[in-house]
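Morning!

As promised:
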Amino acid sequence: MSEQNSQIPVTVLTGYLGSGKTTLLNRILSEDHGKRYAVIVNEFGEIGIDNDLIVESDEEIYEMNNGCVCCTVRGDLVRVVEGLTRRPGRFDAIIVETTGLADPAPVAQTFFMDDDVRAKTKLDAVVALVDAKHLPLRLKDSREAADQIAFADVVVLNKTDLVSPEELAAVEAAVRHINPGARIHKTERAGVALSDVLDRGAFDLQRALENDPHFLDHDDHDHVCGPDCDHDHHHHDHDHDHHHHHAHGELSPIHDVGVTSISLRGGEMDPKKFFPWIQKTTQVDGPNILRLKGIIALKDDPERYVVQGVHMIVEGDHQRAWKDGEKRESRLVFIGRDLDMERLKRTFEACQA
Amino acid sequence: MPTVAPLDLEGHCIAVAWLNNIPHFALADGVVHRLDDGHKSAELHDGLLCAAPMPDGRLLTGGEDGKVCALSSEGSAELLAEIGRKWVTSVAAGPQGAVAFASGRVAYVRFADGRVRELQHPRSVEGLAFAPKGMRLGVARYNGATLHFPATEGKPTELEWAGAHTGITFSPDGNFLVTTMQENALHGWKLADGKHMRMTGYPGKVKSFSWSDRGRWLATSGAPAAIVWPFQGKDGPMGKAPLELGTRGNVMVTQVCCHPAEDIVAIGYSDGMILAARFADAKEVLLRRPGKGGVTAMGWDGEGRRLAFGSEAGDCGVVDISA
């Protein structure tokens, strides 16, 4: 387990030119937070800080010989991460900046598919910066804008001062529609607390749910934090207000971007049915599944089983014991394109014990 | 019994090389250590990324500082090129004092007279190797390899094979070109007719390869054994099974280094152990017990009596097999 602990966390920062990425990067590099970051950028560009831990790298999407989209990685990241991790101790974490046109999937997949990268680093979270003013246009004219939001664990809705409260509500609803599980932070001038974007543990099966107790609760109308709930209450407005946006098929004017989420709910699952099902589903629908997350109640299992995935890559592990009185139910969220909700629901429910 | 003279250093060992019969250990922090009547060192880079021995007895290095250097065995370094704030990710030493180095999508060739030629590519230049004869440079790239004749203006030869090619080597007779890939495979081309050779079945990425004496065999890492492909026939290893030497249960081979004269390969593992194995009968001899980290570099001296090695944890040393 010592190897686990020595893995260097990696934050992926996506967003279009003008979304505030550079402002946020400059803050991460200059603020006094006691941590050192290595930053992999596409161009030195506007980062006005001279630091030999800022590495410029050409985005290189490498498909494998088998042509599988789910095995596609960012070749430049493999090389740069390998180089950086040969000299550990110089930095505490890595930030990967991607351009607005980048497909976030190969970036994330690099940290699962490449054995060397996986041994030395762990994906901490995908953070998407979104320009509140221009998002509706971006969603219309590019596939990447929706993909970046769909992939994100944290969405920083920036430049809120440039839009009216109604516009902001519509943009936020659009983000929620694409990705109900993401944490949304509304900011001006990328003024988000760094602790809200760094060291999130969003891909850590053990931490994902502790950090984000609502990540599957967006359709839970009566969620009330218990006395031992330790999540950050001062950020809370954004989570709780939105539980009602979620009926599928309810379209806001800027919703129709092709990416949707499907929430499935069921009782206890038969592991002999559930595991083959999730394998097969991710094999068949993998190219269309951007992210998946879930908590599964397996029959005769005293512990909660958590799963998460990117395209065809699925990871699962026991998380903790079910608490007394906790409802033993299974919940699974898919975010993707062209997903057959009826079939997913039917086949998921057929796995119940 | 082989004897080990340890050299305990701090940091990841990128390469080892024998310069003027003196073992050199190039570390990722940019310092090159040597055992020459005691432990000496020279600091070449702020971050060293790659190194390769040169035919003139010096060590060619490239760094995170955008510098390319040549280090002599007395510890003096010549700055061969400087390209600014970019990583030099690959170097190769060629004939007639030429060297090649890569950064991003550009391969540079520096000739002995100091003239530098830039070879632009549409995608990143991953690996570099000079052909054994003539001024010919091979570049591993996405979807294949490119062969340049950098001394002339002629059009390069393109060899295509889908997938990302990361490392590259010519067979010593110049008949074959072999690349390592991002996926768990090697790919090869017979240069006379462009015929493909697929070498697959590895459980891990192949990061180390070594030709045996006269290029009769190609030893590779990427499995819990050294995978050694036969290259004696005119079609290379096609239709033939490779040797599997030094097989261990669940410990991966990370480095291979063929003996300069005998059909023997030194095999370094992810736990730091080093074995020598003979091709003829697969007989194994322990050269070094497991150490602090995986073996990342090995090199035989010219006579094949001593093997220098380095690891990711910095526990380096020299094994003497003549004792």
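The first strand of chain A starts at residue 8 and ends at 15.

Hope this helps with the figure draft.
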